[in-house]
């Protein structure tokens, strides 16, 4: 019985750590061609950067920033999916935990 209770608590805790980011808008990050600031449901600045040496999703700024690294192909594919969702006037969701689990057009 104790084992079952511990497993339920662990599963609940692990699920609570994940977060769904809802992207509402995507705008150019200065003069960079493949770096975009995302307007999201988070209070922190979110950048999808497919141009810099460290590519991926950045949440926050400077020392407090959290990075979710992507290889160049994954980064550009995510960028295309976000653009496609927003072009259809739909939100785009990015499901994160310790890494990016998935991204999709929000329903």
Question: What do these coordinates show?
Answer:
This protein is of the alpha+beta class. Helices cover 30% and strands 36% of the residues. It contains two helices and seven strands. The protein has helices spanning 2-17, 72-87, and strands at 19-28, 35-40, 46-49, 56-59, 66-69, 92-96, 100-105. The chain has a seven-stranded antiparallel β-sheet with strand order 5-4-3-2-1-6-7, with helices on one face. A hairpin with a 3-residue loop joins β6 (92-96) and β7. The model is unreliable at 2-17 (pLDDT under 50).
In short:
The chain is α+β, with helices and mostly antiparallel strands and 107 residues long.
The shape is globular
Q: What's the average pLDDT?
A: 86
Our measurement of the CA-to-CA distance between the termini, rounded to an integer number of angstroms, reads 38 Å
Summarize the biggest pleated sheet.
Answer: 7 strands, antiparallel
The H-and-E topology, N to C, reads as HEEEEEHEE
Strand ordering within the main sheet: 5-4-3-2-1-6-7
Class of secondary structure makeup:
alpha+beta
Return residue spans where pLDDT drops below 50 for at least 5 consecutive residues: 2-17
Radius of gyration: 16 Å
Number of β-strand runs: 7
Helix content: 25-40%
Q: Which percent band covers the strand fraction?
A: 35-45%
Number of helices: 2
